[in-house]
Protein: DUF5045 domain-containing protein
Amino acid sequence: MKNLFKKAKLFLLLFVAANVFGQVSVKRLNDPAIVAQHKRMTFESWGDWRPYPKYFLGIQTNFAYATVWGMWAPKINRDYKDGDDIRPLKPTGEQNLRLAQLKFQEEEAKKIKAASDTIYKRSVQDLAHWTSATVDADPLWLLYYKRMLKPITEFPDTPQNFTEWRLKDQQTYETLSTTGTLKRLQEELDLIKDKYSMSRSMDMPRGKRFIMYHETLIRWRKFVQELKKHSDKTTLLLDYKNILKNHLPTTLPTQSTSVSDKQIVQDVMQKYKHKY
Structure:
């Protein structure tokens, strides 16, 4: 019973205290000097140096002004009052400059990110053409170089007869082989095939690979032209040799007025010029 009475008494005291403090109004602080300071620190204006001075017979009578801005104020207060406009939120204030610089940095960061993303995407795209595992899927290879370089793969690595060398006959092949022409052409063919093999099997940038394709193609065309030139020249000389061998007289003329070799060759060429 005694404990119950104590609890009821404590509850009553708490209830009375809550009612008393709940009825107390909160008084808002409105100091004009603080308000003026807030205005100086924002974009509004630089000035309004409260508290204001008061004079009586030329003597400062406002103790608050004297201790804040006047003769008794700290030097830092007087330098602040008489100094430049240092509002951080004025058009050229430090805070606005920081915000502008931050905005500029954000735009630069976006540009850098966009550039880095572009470089990354381009690198990913180039990677597909860097490795030799994907050279067969390159559009430029499929559209042009595959067809233009196909004769290199079809030409034998080491031709052994006139058919593989694509000559007219066996006699032409033997003549070119005897003079060493085919040996030199074989060396050039080996270089062309090695360059073609490297361009297809090595890992390299796409642009460099197509430069090698182009160089191989130019070199192959020169090789084909040179092979054809030697073949045509040798075949022509052999044809003339056979003509002269078959139509020249086997015995010397008995007459003193013999025909010269030059005249004989001219007569033979004139006779057969429309047949070969």
